[in-house]
Amino acid sequence: MRCKSAASAPSAATPKCRSTSVSSARRTATLESAIEDERFREDLYFRVNVVHVQMPPLRARGSDVLLLAQHFLVRYAAQSGKHVAGLSPAAAERLMAYSWPGNVRELQNCIERAVALTTFEHLAVDDLPEKVRAYRPLARDRRERRSLGAR
Fold first, then answer.
1. Which pLDDT score, from 0 to 100, does residue 144 have?
2. What is the spatial distance between Cα 3 and Cα 56, in angstroms, rounded to a whole number?
3. Is 85 exposed, middle or buried (0-12, 13-18, 19+ CB in 10 A)?
4. What is the pTM of this model?
5. Which whole number is the average pLDDT over 122-148?
6. What sign does the CA torsion over 106, 111, 112, 114 have?
């Protein structure tokens, strides 16, 4: 939260908040335990928890990875003035195999980087970050994807 002191206001001792931004927690339980540990204010929790949306992690959303990747590819190709038509089949396969611990933001950064580095019409595996290129799913990851109903 960013606050600005209001020196000209009648009660200059209390800062006036200009804007407030709250990033969402990965799990409601995490916030609830933070309230119990007095690391997060309960009144603020009820202020921001108006609508609870259950969103599965990107790794569990199957083909959404490719839809989002194509969306980001179009956006960043247009911004950079490059003609990048899509993903190579091998790059698409790598994106689908990766676990995406950083969720959509990590995918977005990955595609932005790949578009910036590519010299081809289609993003290749070599354009992807090393972490994505080298990733090999563990048996546990494959079981989790199946149990979460990946498309």
1. 55
2. 34
3. exposed
4. 0.64
5. 78
6. positive
